[in-house]
Design brief:
The complex is a heterodimer of chains A (110) and B (115). Chain A has 110 residues and is an all-beta fold. Helix content of chain A is 0%, strand content 57%. In chain A, a hairpin with a 4-residue loop joins strand 7 and strand 8. In chain B, the strands form two sheets. In chain B, strands 2, 4, 5, 6, 9, 10 and 11 form a seven-stranded mixed β-sheet that branches. Chain B has a four-stranded antiparallel β-sheet with strand order 1-3-8-7, with no helix packed on it. Chain B is globular. Classes of the chains: A mainly beta (110), B mainly beta (115).
Amino acid sequence: AQSVTQLGSHVSVSEGALVLLRCNYSSSVPPYLFWYVQYPNQGLQLLLKYTSAATLVKGINGFEAEFKKSETSFHLTKPSAHMSDAAEYFCAVSANDMRFGAGTRLTVKP
Amino acid sequence: NAGVTQTPKFRILKIGQSMTLQCTQDMNHNYMYWYRQDPGMGLKLIYYSVGAGITDKGEVPNGYNVSRSTTEDFPLRLELAAPSQTSVYFCASSFGLAGGTDTQYFGPGTRLTVL
C-alpha cells in the first residue's frame, strides 16, 4: 500500500519568508499527489494536485509543488508567507486508494 | 451549491450510547467517504461508498456502520460509543473513486467526545 511522510509536524516562519513543507511518498504504482489545507475548525480544501501532466504544479494562494520521482518527493513551497497562510497542511498520495500524511501545522509570525 | 454538509458540529456522548453522524452532498457525486482525524495521525478512512446501496470498509471500520440509500446522503452510525472514538469526523465526496486524480470535497467536520 502507498504511504506519505510529512517531515516536521510544525513549521514556523516569519511573514514574508519562504514556506517549505516537505512530503515524501511511497507507492508501488505511479501515484497522483495532492496538497490539502485545513483552516481552524474547517474541513480540508484542495491546494493543488499532481496528475502527471506537469511536474511543477501551481495551486491557489501562490503555492506550488514539484513532483520529483527520483526523490519520491512532492514538497510544497510559497515564496513569501502571509499571515493568512497559517493552517494545517496535508499531503496525500492517490494510487489504489488515497492516503493522507499526518499533517504539518504552519505558523506565520508577524 | 452547499457542497458537503455535516451535522451535528459538536457532540458529547457517554460510553455505550449510540448516535448517527449525518452527511449530505449536493454535487451529485457517486463516491462518498468517512474519515476520522486524530492529532498527529492525519486522516484515516473509516468507510466509503461507490453509489447508492454499495458501501465498503476502509482502514479503521471497527465500531462503525454506514448505509447509503440515496446518492446525496451517507450517514455514519456509532452503536456503542467508546472513548477511543473521540475524534473529529469528516465526510467527503468525489466524482471519481479515490486512487485517481479526482479531488475530494470535505464537509466542515463533527467533533465527537466520548466520556
